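Supplementary Text 2. Reproducibility record for the structural model of the 443-residue chain.

All settings were left at their defaults, and a single model was retained for analysis rather than an ensemble. We include the record here because the model underlies the residue-level annotations in Supplementary Table 4.
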Amino acid sequence: MSEILLVDDETAFRNMTALLLKDAGHRVTTASDAQTALQILAQKSFPLMIFDLCLPDKDGLFLLQKVRERHLLSEVLVLTGHGSIDTAVKAMKKGAYDYLVKPINPDNFLVVVEKALEKYRFKYELKRLKNSFKQNIIARSTSMRQILSLMEQVAPTNAPVLITGESGTGKELIAQGIHQASQRRDKPFITVNCAALSNTLLESELFGYVKGAFTGATKEKKGIFEEANQGTVFLDEIGETSPNFQVKLLRVLQQGEVKRVGDAEIRKVNVRIIAATNKDLDKEIIQGNFRKDLYYRLQVIMIHIPPLRERKEDILPLALHFLDKYQKKYQKKLKFHPDTLDFLESYPWPGNVRELENAVERAVIVANGPQINIDDLGLKRTEGKFKKDNSVPSICSLAEVEKRHILNVLSATKGNKRQAARILKIGYNTLWRKLKKYQIDKA
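Retained model, structure tokens:
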């Protein structure tokens, strides 16, 4: 059932069309002129609007323009007489979904209405996906924005996904985002850490077992693949599994079939598998530790998450996000000292996003004043990152002189970019651009 706004000044046609739409299961609001329609639209939006191009008070193109300004997702069908088809074509160029010539054919009319509503639902779902990703994943850097874009394309499908990246980069968050934006979002999302279980235990947990299958199997148990039917299973650290287990996992991916340990019966399951690893699976395949056929089946879609040190634009937005999160948790009101912000940007973050979150939580807990200082983070300061360079050759480019001078000032300020910018008498953002230009700050 969808809500539809019908605007037409012919009472008999309006009543007949409204009845036709209601019989098809839709809720219909009607108006006889553009002014009334605009008053209604000021209060609510409709997935679909249907209106005549010849209205008594305003031209239909005027109403279409107002609709497109305020209701970006809504679809519009325009009605026209035989003599106004050129105007209807203009309406389509201005954003109308389609036009119908009066008198309408009821069956054809309902088909076009359903197609327009289907397009609206597609646009609405796409917007919801984008909002879901934006709310849960911080993405200021180009690389993370590209990942979000790929997630938007992947989420509505059932394709397996392989997520790679160092520990702490947020692989599970990406997997959750894909699940939450998929058609499976109301079904289970189950995470399994393959590295935390022996292969025997991993198999019994995922596939289940029958009574007496092994010592301790006192009753029949359904496996995670069956528990997550219609949902998603996230297999973290997939590179830690044995080739024998990988054969059985391949069967789940290819045939959607599982066999409980100790059972001959084959059971059908419908699960989406998202796997993750911090290992180089190409090397694991060469060493005989990972099956090539499983690798190719898993990486239908591959998402690689760069380490935090390679996407510095995300550091401060993430830090501020975690600050807001833990201020609420511990009921404090704090902000970062400017020197702390500089330190956060220059720190190499070997533990990636997880290390950053832990550092911010610690800082919120231990900070005594209104500001978070560097020492509150509990991180080791990296000395000598910016080394003074006096070896300027007698003949060199102006850019080289500038680069070396910036290095010397940063060395003198122990890497404090804000202080360096003040000494150089340039804006902080200007200094940041020069650091990127000269590739000075690549820790």
